[in-house]
């Protein structure tokens, strides 16, 4: 087994896409430095769905947790596993994962972000995972204690306890997400410092498009999900069709300048929750990278919610989206390779031979 295995478990919407981009775009550089990124992003993602035994795992998925682990049993250096869905594993699933990595020295890394930014991001993420509830329904469910899954699956505190208790305190790492306006490299520097990746090993690259949608765009996607019903029940087909041809090809290319978030009427509630989070992490023996004070919301201001949009705004977004999808369809059409003249000549020749043969047969 490797000397050390670093398991980056999330949380979702904490800059994980950026961190993963840097890791996956520098696999050869990392390998030469003694750090292995086994197989691929897809393998990690499929291994996560197998570990958690989620009902939406694609039946055609190849990679399991055990199959992924088998690929690096002979690696003598360090291994990095990363998927923001790992953190949602329950206690038994997390225990199985950590025990399967023995006798390697297992480290658990979790990232934490302030709740003011987390709430709209997590609701948007749920819509992009084909949920259909309104933003106000989502926030109210969390506020009234009717959606414990938010805390269990999407926040650092709960998921960290399930995983962190399985390793010694010095192998538990919390990375705080820098506030808005901070250099984007800062999050990477914090993450790399935990693993021990030296400066200069990885080249910084522009983040992959994982842009937030504006209020009209995400509300339009929510309504599309409602209209889809039970079509695309598994995540991979939904991503191949809806994400590829609607979200990435069209919705993310729009201005998306109408931001949305939690209203100021809930500012005090969120500030109190932030203090609870900070205290829990202060009291939990672990290695903190960054500043827990960054979990206190800053710059809170009133913003509209997708629920408050009028139908004209949704209609305008829908029409412009249809126009965008027509342009996307035309781009795909132009990408279809045109047969070379020689191939076309052979096709015409064979077609002519078929016609002549039919004439002879039919007399």
Report the structural category. Answer: alpha/beta
As a whole number of angstroms, the C-alpha radius of gyration is: 24 Å
| Number of separate strands | 6
CATH architecture of the largest domain: 3-Layer(aba) Sandwich
Secondary-structure element pattern, one letter each: EHHEHHEHEHHHHEHHHHEHH
Structure notes:
- With 363 residues, the protein is α/β, with parallel strands linked by helices.
- It contains 15 helices and 6 strands.
Provide a brief overview of the structure:
By secondary structure, the protein is α/β, with parallel strands linked by helices.
What's the arrangement of secondary structure elements?
Blueprint: E1 4-8, H1 16-24, H2 27-32, E2 35-36, H3 41-52, H4 65-70, E3 78-82, H5 91-100, E4 105-112, H6 115-128, H7 135-143, H8 148-154, H9 156-164, E5 172-176, H10 185-195, H11 215-228, H12 235-248, H13 267-283, E6 287-289, H14 311-335, H15 341-362
Parallel strand pairs: 1-3, 1-4, 2-3, 4-5, 5-6
Helix pairs in contact: 8-9, 11-14
List keywords for this structure.
363 residues; six-stranded parallel sheet; globular; Rossmann fold; alpha/beta; 15 helices; 2 domains; single chain
């Amino acid at each position: 087994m490797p000397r050390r295995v670093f398991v980056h478990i999330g949380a979702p919407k904490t800059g994980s896409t950026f961190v993963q981009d840097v890791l996956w775009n520098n696999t050869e550089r990392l390998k030469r430095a003694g750090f292995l990124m086994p197989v691929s992003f897809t393998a990690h993602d499929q291994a996560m769905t197998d570990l958690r035994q989620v009902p939406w795992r694609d039946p055609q998925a190849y990679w399991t947790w055990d199959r992924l682990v088998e690929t690096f049993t002979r690696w003598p250096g360090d291994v990095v596993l990363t998927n923001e869905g790992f953190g949602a594993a329950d206690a038994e699933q997390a225990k199985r994962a950590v025990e399967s990595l023995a006798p390697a020295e297992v480290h658990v890394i979790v990232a934490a972000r302030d709740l003011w930014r987390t709430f709209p991001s997590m609701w948007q993420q749920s819509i992009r995972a084909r949920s259909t509830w309104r933003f106000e329904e989502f926030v109210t469910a969390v506020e009234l204690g009717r959606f414990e899954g938010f805390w269990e699956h999407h926040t650092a505190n709960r998921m960290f306890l399930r995983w962190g208790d399985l390793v010694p305190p010095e192998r538990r790492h919390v990375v705080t997400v820098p506030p808005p306006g901070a250099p984007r490299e800062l999050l990477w520097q914090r993450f790399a410092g935990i693993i021990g990746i030296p400066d200069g090993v990885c080249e910084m690259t522009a983040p992959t498009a994982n842009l937030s949608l504006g209020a009209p765009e995400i509300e339009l996607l929510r309504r599309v999900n409602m209209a889809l019903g039970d079509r695309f029940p598994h995540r991979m087909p939904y991503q191949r069709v809806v994400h590829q041809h609607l979200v990435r090809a069209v919705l993310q290319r729009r201005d998306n300048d109408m931001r949305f978030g939690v209203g100021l009427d809930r500012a005090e509630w969120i500030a109190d929750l932030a203090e609870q989070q900070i205290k829990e992490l202060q009291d939990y023996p672990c290695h903190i990278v960054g500043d827990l004070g960054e979990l206190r919301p800053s710059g809170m201001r009133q913003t509209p919610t997708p629920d408050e949009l009028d139908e004209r705004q949704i209609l305008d977004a829908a029409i412009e989206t249809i126009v965008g999808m027509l342009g996307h369809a035309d781009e795909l059409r132009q990408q279809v390779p045109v047969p070379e003249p020689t191939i076309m000549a052979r096709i015409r020749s064979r077609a002519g031979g078929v016609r002549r043969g039919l004439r002879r047969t039919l007399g």
